[in-house]
Write a structure and sequence with these properties.
Length: 298
């Protein structure tokens, strides 16, 4: 099959390399405003270059991977859906929930599959945890902890369009807690601060944050067991090496969506659920109070 990639920045270039190595992907078609990124993709992967998203959609692609900046996601998703081409789009659907809901309304009933990229749903450890929870192997679930660390802050241009730490980064944790437990959130309490790059503070965001999530049927607790340590082993240096296998499994799943052998494993509607929690966390952060999910849901 022939796959198009819109956006060849850090994650787009990573996806291009992954897709080029997948069975069933015969060729890539790419577009990006940065000519050097396009040249690299054509040289490394034999990709066909196009000068715009519109040209890419007209190039006979069977599926489209959207890895552009978050604020470009809605228009690119809708353009691909209108062209009748299955879409894989990196999370989130849009910068805010209202925009995401507009995308959902537009794609509902279109008959075109849209797969939103929450890679942790394809991580072997997260899949095993979900299986253990849903099968009852773990018994009653009392506590879930999800932690994400980046080795360095994202660049200023990325921060400016990110929507903040909960909407862009923490949303991975919010999605995976919901997916692993099979439960919804009813209330959040979030806090955060700035201990690093000044440009993050200037953008009105925090670089360090925590959120306490109350699930629909469980009491949130934390361990105070002495001597508890992190797992042993060689530490990962970045999310791309930590989740390399998950990204490969995720994009393999998308090729199956394109081939029509499965439906989207993470729809726009799925992604919006995590976005609601991110909105509640952001409101809680700014107002220094617990926020129930029904406050922000509309």
């Amino acid at each position: 099959m022939r796959i198009g990639i819109m956006g060849l920045g850090r994650i787009g270039a990573f996806h291009a390399e992954t897709l080029a190595g997948l069975d069933g992907v015969d060729s890539l078609v790419v577009t990006d405003p940065v000519a050097a990124a396009v040249a690299t993709a054509t040289e490394r992967f034999g990709a066909t270059a196009t000068d715009s998203p519109e040209a890419l959609l007209a190039a006979g692609v069977d599926g489209v991977v959207i890895a552009a900046a978050t604020d470009a996601h809605p228009d690119l998703i809708l353009a691909a859906v209108q062209a009748g081409i299955p879409v894989f789009c990196e999370k989130p659907v849009a910068r805010g929930v209202e925009e995401s809901r507009e995308v959902l309304r537009a794609v509902e009933g279109s008959g075109v599959e849209v797969h939103i990229g929450y890679n942790r749903r394809f991580d072997a450890g997260c899949v095993a945890a979900r299986r253990a929870v849903l099968s009852g192997e773990l018994g009653d679930l009392h506590t879930v902890r999800s932690t994400t660390f980046d080795p360095a802050p994202p660049p200023p241009a990325y921060v400016a369009v990110s929507g903040g730490i909960f909407r862009d980064c923490g949303v991975h944790d919010l999605d995976i807690v919901r997916w692993v437990t099979g439960r919804e959130m009813v209330e959040v309490y979030a806090t955060g601060g700035n201990r690093g790059a000044e440009y993050i503070r200037e953008a009105g965001h925090v670089d360090t944050a925590s959120a306490l999530l109350t699930l629909a049927d469980r009491l949130p607790l934390r361990s105070v067991e002495p001597g508890t340590t992190f797992p042993a082993g060689t530490p990962h240096t970045f999310f791309m090496d930590r989740f390399a296998a998950a990204y490969r499994a995720e994009l393999t799943a998308f090729t199956e969506v394109v081939a029509g052998t499965r439906t989207s494993p993470c729809t726009v509607a799925d992604a919006i659920e995590a976005s609601w929690i991110a909105e509640a966390c952001t409101l809680s952060l700014h107002e220094h109070r617990p926020v129930r999910l029904d406050e922000v849901r509309k």
